Protein backbone atom coordinates (compact mmCIF):
# COMPACT_ATOMS: atom_id res chain seq x y z
CA UNK A 1 0.00 0.00 0.00
CA UNK A 2 2.87 2.40 0.84
CA UNK A 3 4.51 1.62 -2.50
CA UNK A 4 1.23 2.31 -4.34
CA UNK A 5 0.81 5.64 -2.55
CA UNK A 6 4.35 6.66 -3.50
CA UNK A 7 3.67 5.85 -7.15
CA UNK A 8 0.40 7.85 -7.09
CA UNK A 9 2.17 10.84 -5.52
CA UNK A 10 4.92 10.70 -8.15
CA UNK A 11 2.35 10.43 -10.93
CA UNK A 12 0.57 13.53 -9.59
CA UNK A 13 3.73 15.59 -9.18
CA UNK A 14 4.93 14.72 -12.64
CA UNK A 15 1.71 15.78 -14.28
CA UNK A 16 3.16 19.31 -14.17
CA UNK A 17 6.07 20.05 -16.52
CA UNK A 18 9.02 21.87 -14.98
CA UNK A 19 11.15 22.19 -18.14
CA UNK A 20 10.94 24.46 -21.17
CA UNK A 21 9.64 22.33 -24.02
CA UNK A 22 11.92 22.45 -27.09
CA UNK A 23 11.37 21.47 -30.69
CA UNK A 24 14.13 19.12 -31.81
CA UNK A 25 16.54 20.58 -34.32
CA UNK A 26 19.49 19.36 -36.37
CA UNK A 27 23.06 18.94 -35.09
CA UNK A 28 26.31 17.79 -36.62
CA UNK A 29 26.37 14.07 -35.73
CA UNK A 30 29.10 11.58 -36.62
CA UNK A 31 27.99 8.38 -34.86
CA UNK A 32 24.79 7.05 -33.25
CA UNK A 33 24.50 4.46 -30.46
CA UNK A 34 21.74 3.27 -28.11
CA UNK A 35 21.36 1.70 -24.69
CA UNK A 36 18.67 0.88 -22.15
CA UNK A 37 17.61 -0.79 -18.93
CA UNK A 38 15.40 -3.89 -18.74
CA UNK A 39 12.60 -3.29 -21.29
CA UNK A 40 14.73 -0.35 -22.43
CA UNK A 41 17.63 -2.76 -22.90
CA UNK A 42 15.41 -4.95 -25.06
CA UNK A 43 14.35 -1.83 -26.98
CA UNK A 44 17.96 -0.76 -27.50
CA UNK A 45 18.81 -4.16 -28.99
CA UNK A 46 15.72 -4.04 -31.22
CA UNK A 47 16.67 -0.60 -32.50
CA UNK A 48 20.26 -1.69 -33.06
CA UNK A 49 19.27 -4.78 -35.05
CA UNK A 50 16.51 -3.05 -36.99
CA UNK A 51 18.52 0.08 -37.81
CA UNK A 52 22.10 -1.20 -37.97
CA UNK A 53 22.86 0.91 -41.03
CA UNK A 54 22.16 3.95 -38.83
CA UNK A 55 23.00 2.76 -35.30
CA UNK A 56 26.52 1.43 -34.67
CA UNK A 57 26.20 -0.18 -31.24
CA UNK A 58 23.96 -1.01 -28.27
CA UNK A 59 24.14 -1.38 -24.51
CA UNK A 60 21.75 -3.73 -22.73
CA UNK A 61 21.44 -3.40 -18.95
CA UNK A 62 19.53 -6.31 -17.41
CA UNK A 63 17.47 -6.88 -20.54
CA UNK A 64 16.63 -9.96 -22.64
CA UNK A 65 18.06 -10.70 -26.10
CA UNK A 66 16.52 -9.83 -29.45
CA UNK A 67 12.98 -11.17 -30.00
CA UNK A 68 13.15 -13.26 -26.82
CA UNK A 69 9.41 -12.89 -26.22
CA UNK A 70 8.48 -14.19 -29.67
CA UNK A 71 5.55 -11.79 -29.47
CA UNK A 72 4.13 -13.33 -26.29
CA UNK A 73 3.56 -11.56 -22.96
CA UNK A 74 3.61 -14.94 -21.19
CA UNK A 75 7.01 -15.86 -22.64
CA UNK A 76 8.39 -12.37 -21.93
CA UNK A 77 7.50 -12.59 -18.22
CA UNK A 78 8.69 -16.17 -17.73
CA UNK A 79 11.42 -17.58 -19.98
CA UNK A 80 12.84 -14.15 -20.76
CA UNK A 81 13.28 -13.12 -17.13
CA UNK A 82 13.60 -16.12 -14.82
CA UNK A 83 16.79 -18.00 -14.09
CA UNK A 84 14.81 -21.23 -13.65
CA UNK A 85 13.24 -21.14 -17.08
CA UNK A 86 16.04 -20.08 -19.41
CA UNK A 87 16.04 -23.48 -21.08
CA UNK A 88 12.89 -22.20 -22.76
CA UNK A 89 14.81 -19.30 -24.35
CA UNK A 90 15.05 -20.58 -27.90
CA UNK A 91 18.14 -18.94 -29.38
CA UNK A 92 17.65 -20.58 -32.77
CA UNK A 93 14.15 -19.09 -32.97
CA UNK A 94 15.53 -15.60 -32.25
CA UNK A 95 18.38 -15.86 -34.72
CA UNK A 96 16.16 -17.35 -37.42
CA UNK A 97 13.57 -14.61 -36.83
CA UNK A 98 16.22 -11.92 -37.25
CA UNK A 99 17.34 -13.53 -40.49
CA UNK A 100 13.75 -13.83 -41.70
CA UNK A 101 13.16 -10.14 -40.94
CA UNK A 102 16.34 -9.35 -42.88
CA UNK A 103 15.09 -11.34 -45.88
CA UNK A 104 11.88 -9.27 -45.83
CA UNK A 105 13.78 -5.99 -45.48
CA UNK A 106 12.17 -5.48 -42.08
CA UNK A 107 15.59 -5.04 -40.46
CA UNK A 108 18.79 -3.71 -41.99
CA UNK A 109 21.47 -6.12 -43.22
CA UNK A 110 22.77 -8.21 -40.34
CA UNK A 111 26.22 -7.95 -41.94
CA UNK A 112 26.35 -4.42 -40.55
CA UNK A 113 26.74 -5.87 -37.05
CA UNK A 114 30.10 -7.47 -37.87
CA UNK A 115 32.14 -4.34 -37.17
CA UNK A 116 29.93 -2.87 -34.46
CA UNK A 117 30.01 -3.13 -30.66
CA UNK A 118 27.75 -4.34 -27.87
CA UNK A 119 27.69 -3.96 -24.06
CA UNK A 120 25.82 -6.44 -21.82
CA UNK A 121 25.31 -6.02 -18.06
CA UNK A 122 23.63 -8.00 -15.32
CA UNK A 123 23.98 -7.39 -11.57
CA UNK A 124 24.48 -10.29 -9.19
CA UNK A 125 21.71 -8.92 -6.94
CA UNK A 126 19.17 -8.58 -9.76
CA UNK A 127 16.04 -10.59 -8.94
CA UNK A 128 14.00 -9.29 -11.90
CA UNK A 129 16.02 -10.37 -14.93
CA UNK A 130 18.52 -13.13 -14.27
CA UNK A 131 22.13 -13.09 -15.43
CA UNK A 132 21.52 -16.33 -17.32
CA UNK A 133 18.95 -14.48 -19.45
CA UNK A 134 21.20 -11.45 -19.97
CA UNK A 135 23.99 -13.73 -21.14
CA UNK A 136 21.76 -14.89 -23.98
CA UNK A 137 22.57 -11.52 -25.58
CA UNK A 138 26.09 -12.83 -26.06
CA UNK A 139 24.75 -15.96 -27.72
CA UNK A 140 22.70 -13.86 -30.10
CA UNK A 141 25.34 -11.33 -31.11
CA UNK A 142 28.10 -13.95 -31.45
CA UNK A 143 26.28 -15.10 -34.57
CA UNK A 144 26.96 -11.73 -36.18
CA UNK A 145 30.15 -10.34 -34.61
CA UNK A 146 33.34 -11.49 -32.94
CA UNK A 147 33.26 -12.05 -29.17
CA UNK A 148 35.92 -9.34 -28.77
CA UNK A 149 33.30 -6.76 -29.73
CA UNK A 150 30.97 -7.81 -26.89
CA UNK A 151 31.78 -6.12 -23.57
CA UNK A 152 30.21 -7.99 -20.62
CA UNK A 153 29.92 -7.06 -16.94
CA UNK A 154 28.41 -9.67 -14.61
CA UNK A 155 30.39 -9.20 -11.39
CA UNK A 156 28.81 -6.14 -9.72
CA UNK A 157 26.40 -6.75 -6.84
CA UNK A 158 23.75 -4.44 -8.31
CA UNK A 159 19.99 -4.74 -8.05
CA UNK A 160 17.79 -4.27 -11.12
CA UNK A 161 18.34 -0.80 -12.56
CA UNK A 162 20.82 1.77 -13.83
CA UNK A 163 24.15 1.82 -12.03
CA UNK A 164 25.95 5.07 -11.23
CA UNK A 165 28.82 6.37 -9.11
CA UNK A 166 26.88 9.28 -7.60
CA UNK A 167 23.12 8.68 -7.45
CA UNK A 168 20.61 6.06 -6.31
CA UNK A 169 19.96 3.65 -3.49
CA UNK A 170 22.38 1.11 -2.01
CA UNK A 171 23.91 -0.97 -4.78
CA UNK A 172 22.30 -4.33 -4.02
CA UNK A 173 18.89 -3.10 -2.80
CA UNK A 174 16.06 -2.48 -5.26
CA UNK A 175 14.29 0.90 -5.13
CA UNK A 176 11.33 2.53 -6.87
CA UNK A 177 13.56 4.63 -9.15
CA UNK A 178 15.65 1.65 -10.32
CA UNK A 179 18.83 3.70 -9.78
CA UNK A 180 21.70 2.13 -7.85
CA UNK A 181 24.87 3.81 -6.57
CA UNK A 182 27.52 1.11 -6.92
CA UNK A 183 30.60 3.37 -7.30
CA UNK A 184 30.65 2.34 -10.97
CA UNK A 185 30.13 4.79 -13.83
CA UNK A 186 28.05 2.57 -16.06
CA UNK A 187 27.23 5.35 -18.53
CA UNK A 188 30.94 5.87 -19.14
CA UNK A 189 31.61 2.14 -19.49
CA UNK A 190 28.79 1.81 -22.03
CA UNK A 191 29.81 4.79 -24.13
CA UNK A 192 33.50 3.94 -24.07
CA UNK A 193 32.69 0.31 -25.00
CA UNK A 194 30.58 1.43 -27.94
CA UNK A 195 33.26 3.95 -29.01
CA UNK A 196 36.49 2.02 -28.33
CA UNK A 197 38.63 4.20 -30.58
CA UNK A 198 37.74 7.54 -29.04
CA UNK A 199 39.60 7.39 -25.69
CA UNK A 200 36.74 8.94 -23.73
CA UNK A 201 37.41 10.83 -20.51
CA UNK A 202 35.64 9.78 -17.33
CA UNK A 203 33.99 12.65 -15.43
CA UNK A 204 34.27 13.28 -11.73
CA UNK A 205 31.45 11.73 -9.74
CA UNK A 206 28.33 13.87 -10.15
CA UNK A 207 30.17 16.56 -12.11
CA UNK A 208 28.32 19.82 -12.76
CA UNK A 209 26.83 20.19 -16.23
CA UNK A 210 27.47 23.04 -18.63
CA UNK A 211 24.98 22.25 -21.41
CA UNK A 212 21.21 22.32 -21.96
CA UNK A 213 18.83 19.79 -20.42
CA UNK A 214 15.27 20.17 -21.71
CA UNK A 215 12.02 18.49 -22.57
CA UNK A 216 11.23 18.14 -26.26
CA UNK A 217 8.00 17.59 -28.14
CA UNK A 218 7.93 13.87 -28.86
CA UNK A 219 4.35 13.79 -30.13
CA UNK A 220 5.22 15.46 -33.45
CA UNK A 221 6.89 12.20 -34.48
CA UNK A 222 3.82 10.03 -33.86
CA UNK A 223 1.95 8.63 -36.82
CA UNK A 224 -0.23 6.25 -34.81
CA UNK A 225 -2.33 6.68 -31.67
CA UNK A 226 -1.29 3.23 -30.47
CA UNK A 227 2.40 4.12 -30.12
CA UNK A 228 2.00 4.43 -26.32
CA UNK A 229 4.81 6.95 -26.03
CA UNK A 230 4.69 10.11 -23.93
CA UNK A 231 4.07 13.47 -25.59
CA UNK A 232 7.40 14.69 -24.20
CA UNK A 233 10.93 13.33 -24.14
CA UNK A 234 14.23 14.64 -22.72
CA UNK A 235 17.43 15.83 -24.39
CA UNK A 236 20.84 16.90 -23.15
CA UNK A 237 23.05 19.02 -25.43
CA UNK A 238 26.58 20.01 -24.31
CA UNK A 239 27.51 23.59 -25.15
CA UNK A 240 30.14 22.50 -27.68
CA UNK A 241 27.63 20.38 -29.60
CA UNK A 242 25.72 23.50 -30.61
CA UNK A 243 28.51 24.29 -33.08
CA UNK A 244 30.83 21.26 -33.23
CA UNK A 245 30.51 17.68 -34.53
CA UNK A 246 29.30 15.33 -31.78
CA UNK A 247 28.09 11.77 -31.25
CA UNK A 248 24.44 10.98 -30.52
CA UNK A 249 23.37 8.48 -27.89
CA UNK A 250 19.79 7.39 -27.26
CA UNK A 251 19.05 6.03 -23.77
CA UNK A 252 15.86 4.05 -23.07
CA UNK A 253 14.48 3.97 -19.53
CA UNK A 254 13.07 0.79 -18.00
CA UNK A 255 9.57 -0.12 -16.83
CA UNK A 256 8.22 2.22 -14.11
CA UNK A 257 11.08 4.58 -14.90
CA UNK A 258 9.65 6.90 -17.54
CA UNK A 259 8.32 10.44 -17.27
CA UNK A 260 4.75 9.30 -16.58
CA UNK A 261 5.96 7.55 -13.41
CA UNK A 262 9.16 9.19 -12.08
CA UNK A 263 9.54 12.32 -14.17
CA UNK A 264 13.12 13.15 -15.16
CA UNK A 265 14.85 11.12 -12.41
CA UNK A 266 16.48 8.74 -14.88
CA UNK A 267 17.25 11.34 -17.55
CA UNK A 268 18.95 13.66 -15.08
CA UNK A 269 20.75 11.12 -12.90
CA UNK A 270 21.80 8.19 -15.10
CA UNK A 271 25.30 9.64 -15.55
CA UNK A 272 25.09 9.95 -19.33
CA UNK A 273 24.89 13.74 -19.23
CA UNK A 274 28.16 14.09 -17.31
CA UNK A 275 29.96 11.77 -19.73
CA UNK A 276 28.34 13.59 -22.65
CA UNK A 277 29.45 16.99 -21.36
CA UNK A 278 33.09 15.93 -21.22
CA UNK A 279 33.15 13.94 -24.47
CA UNK A 280 30.82 15.75 -26.87
CA UNK A 281 27.74 13.52 -26.95
CA UNK A 282 24.15 14.61 -27.35
CA UNK A 283 21.88 12.33 -25.32
CA UNK A 284 18.19 11.78 -26.09
CA UNK A 285 15.85 10.06 -23.64
CA UNK A 286 12.68 8.92 -25.46
CA UNK A 287 9.76 8.23 -23.14
CA UNK A 288 7.28 5.37 -23.16
CA UNK A 289 3.95 5.97 -21.42
CA UNK A 290 2.11 4.04 -18.74
CA UNK A 291 -1.36 3.02 -19.87
CA UNK A 292 -3.86 0.94 -17.93
CA UNK A 293 -5.93 0.38 -21.07
CA UNK A 294 -3.19 -0.10 -23.65
CA UNK A 295 -1.65 -3.26 -22.21
CA UNK A 296 1.27 -1.34 -20.71
CA UNK A 297 0.48 -0.27 -17.13
CA UNK A 298 4.17 -0.08 -16.14
CA UNK A 299 5.29 2.13 -19.01
CA UNK A 300 7.59 -0.51 -20.52
CA UNK A 301 8.99 -0.35 -24.03
CA UNK A 302 7.34 -2.76 -26.43
CA UNK A 303 9.39 -5.95 -26.57
CA UNK A 304 6.49 -8.43 -26.58
CA UNK A 305 4.03 -6.94 -29.09
CA UNK A 306 1.57 -4.70 -27.24
CA UNK A 307 1.64 -2.24 -30.16
CA UNK A 308 1.75 -4.71 -33.06
CA UNK A 309 3.48 -7.86 -34.31
CA UNK A 310 6.28 -5.93 -36.06
CA UNK A 311 7.48 -4.30 -32.82
CA UNK A 312 11.10 -5.53 -33.28
CA UNK A 313 11.48 -4.30 -36.87
CA UNK A 314 11.85 -1.07 -38.84
CA UNK A 315 8.04 -1.07 -39.10
CA UNK A 316 7.54 -1.24 -35.34
CA UNK A 317 5.54 1.77 -34.18
CA UNK A 318 7.97 2.81 -31.47
CA UNK A 319 11.05 2.13 -33.58
CA UNK A 320 9.60 4.31 -36.35
CA UNK A 321 9.27 7.16 -33.85
CA UNK A 322 12.88 6.66 -32.73
CA UNK A 323 14.05 6.68 -36.35
CA UNK A 324 12.15 9.91 -37.00
CA UNK A 325 13.83 11.49 -33.98
CA UNK A 326 17.24 10.36 -35.25
CA UNK A 327 16.47 11.72 -38.70
CA UNK A 328 15.55 15.10 -37.25
CA UNK A 329 18.60 15.41 -35.01
CA UNK A 330 21.24 13.78 -37.21
CA UNK A 331 20.11 14.09 -40.81
CA UNK A 332 18.10 17.31 -40.98
CA UNK A 333 15.03 15.62 -42.47
Tell me about this structure:
The chain has 333 residues and is of the alpha/beta class. The protein has one domain. Helices cover 28% and strands 17% of the residues. A 9-stranded mixed beta sheet has the order 1-9-10-12-11-2-3-4-5, sandwiched between helices. It has a 3-stranded parallel beta sheet with strand order 6-8-7, with no helix packed on it. Helix 2 links the parallel strand 2 and strand 3 (57-61). The relative contact order is 0.19. Keywords: Signal. This is Poly(3-hydroxybutyrate) depolymerase. Residues 1-18 form the signal peptide.
Tell me the distance between the termini: 48 Å
**Mean pLDDT across residues:** 92
Contiguous uncertain segments of 5+ residues: 1-19
- For the record, the count of structural domains works out to 1
Number of helices: 11
Helix content: 25-40%
* Total beta strand runs: 12
Largest sheet: 9 strands, mixed
Read across the widest sheet, the strand sequence of neighbours is 1-9-10-12-11-2-3-4-5
Query: SSE string, helix = H, strand = E?
Result: HEEHEHHEHHEEEEHEEEHHHEH
Beta-strand percentage range: 15-25%
**Rg, nearest Å:** 18 Å
Summing up helix and strand content along with how strands pair, one would put the structural category as: alpha/beta
Shape: globular
InterPro entries: AB_hydrolase_fold
Protein name: Poly(3-hydroxybutyrate) depolymerase
Keywords: Signal
Signal peptide: 1-18
Give the secondary structure arrangement, pairings included.
Blueprint: H1 2-13, E1 21-22, E2 29-37, H2 39-50, E3 57-61, H3 73-77, H4 91-103, E4 117-121, H5 131-134, H6 136-141, E5 150-153, E6 162-164, E7 169-170, E8 179-181, H7 186-194, E9 212-217, E10 232-237, E11 246-252, H8 259-262, H9 265-269, H10 272-279, E12 281-285, H11 317-331
Parallel strand pairs: 1-9, 2-3, 2-11, 3-4, 4-5, 6-8, 7-8, 11-12
Antiparallel strand pairs: 9-10, 10-12
